[in-house]
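As described in the Methods, two query proteins were run sequentially through the folding procedure within a single session, without resetting any intermediate state between them. The first query and its resulting structure tokens are shown here.
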Amino acid sequence: MTRVLAFVLSALAFALLPETAVAQRRGGIQGFIQGPIEAGLRVGRDFENHAWSAGALARIPVGQRLELRPSADAFFPKQGKTGWQANGDADVMFGPGGTVYGGGGIALVHLDGDKTRTGYNLFFGLIGAPAEARSKVFLEFRWTFVNDTSPFRLVAGFTRRIGG
């Protein structure tokens, strides 16, 4: 439980980090990043494993419509031990004003005290704000494929611009 609390506190600090600190830190990769970085928090429900989740994410634009989306979530099942998942995802923005996105990536999954397993994610989502908004809400539909399972998770959250 201490690890979960540390994770949640770290995610909250990251999401609320002053933008001047972020701007100073990313000076060396300025040419790689194509717009303001966003960070946020999310909650979700894994319907196959009957677990709630809470986590944090970052949105790093690296092209006109391409973003890197590192994220991590803690899982709180009705029965069993608390678990976690770390993701290295990328997405493509499309739709009017970039309000629809889809993508995928790698997943490291550690559930119910089992060993950490590698899998992959597929997802698509809707953003409830225009691209230039400082804060955005989103709804995401996500599948993680590990071994022979592919649980569906519905995720909702928000992001806030922290740079440029």
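Immediately afterward, the second query was submitted; its sequence and tokens are:
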Amino acid sequence: MKGIRTMNSIERVLATLKGEIPDMVPIVEIVIEKNIREKIMPSASILDFYDNVDIDGIVIFEDIPWLEVSSNVKKDHFGCLRHFRDNEGDSWPLPLEPLIKNDNLNNFLNNYKIPNPHDPIRLTTLRAAVDRLKGKKAIIFGMHSSFLYPSFIRGFDNLLMDYIVNPDFAKHLTQMVVNYFVELEKHAIDYGADAIIDCEDYCSKLGPFVSEQHFREFILPGLIEVISTAKRRNIPFMKHSDGNVWSLLDMLVDSGIDSYNPVETNAGMDIGKVKKIYGNKITLHGNVDSANLMVFGKPEDVKIAVKECIKIASPGGRFILSSSSGIHSHVIPENFLAMIDAARYFGRYPIKIKD
């Protein structure tokens, strides 16, 4: 372990994803809500913030050309009406209603227009991040694939029912969406993304939304397609899913992912157990509690949690530190900064944390 050379942020992240021992545990957050960024760096742009905050990887999503419908409702590029709720942040607005309003599913498929993945406007922020931060931070393109937008378009309950009664329709709709993200992913890689992360949740705290059989038949093929697109270009592929993912982990690991996030503590995901079973195959990416600890706790409590997380998950490498569910709008900014400080203090290899 002696002689570990000092790395920059991108080297640190990529080494960890490859299973190599970095100089220190990398820090990568999928989302840091705007109101948190504003409290830490008032008036800073997202790239100003990422340039100055001491984390190793940044996640940039596509630029959605929102069409304002009312004060808190906007239409996305897939045509879905999305509700921006007060105090929930802007990152994950949920749909108000299904886009499909009738039962003529074939007619919908014949007339529905998927957005243009070749429109360069979609990746404006990514290109700006590459221009400014390439080689300085790991630039990770955040995307979706085979479940989120099909559920937005069809309606969550309707889509799950389609898996049983309209399977051909469900597969056709899903493939249309997957094709969009495959092309968008190719452009992101061409523009200079260092890694890809798929940010679709498959589970609640109780377990998967669908049966293992339906996951394997309807969701997994599209995920494998976007993974393969990255791997053909030697780009690491990271996977996010909140919730209790235990019953799906074998399939996810076998699909070719390089990392799994967030190993959500409050959903029964024990990072020590996941490390023991899968730690020689994939990198774990998590899991300081941001549902409760980083909202109601104090900085000293966060530092203790970071210390414990690094102690459990970092041996042998293959560990990236993050919160358990993103730096959402209710996180105390001082706790986020405490997480970073503690990671830098305790996370230097060789790890030497005493009880």
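The chain has one domain: 9-64+98-346. We note this only descriptively and draw no conclusion about the first query from it.
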